[in-house]
């Protein structure tokens, strides 16, 4: 399950979900650039902005989700709240 936007040929920044962590936990993007979350963990996870302005679907092992964040935000996994990350948008 991967959401993509064919209008942009830019490569997305990859955030791997593995061992109950987002890796890297903090990324910096320019406005319009994309991030792809790829779950390589044995359990399902999601990535949800702390104020719920965006959220991925639940991602099972091997699934990914891509989107272009519009502003700097902190996020976490709603299933495993100790998993946290940050996207900085310039």
TrEMBL record:
Residue ranges annotated for the Blue (type 1) copper domain, each copy included: 13-90
Domain of life assignment: Bacteria
One Pfam family of this chain: Copper-bind
Key words of the record: Copper, Metal-binding
PANTHER family (alphabetical): BLL1555 PROTEIN
UniProt-recorded name of the protein: Blue (type 1) copper domain-containing protein
Species in which this protein is naturally found: Kaistella antarctica
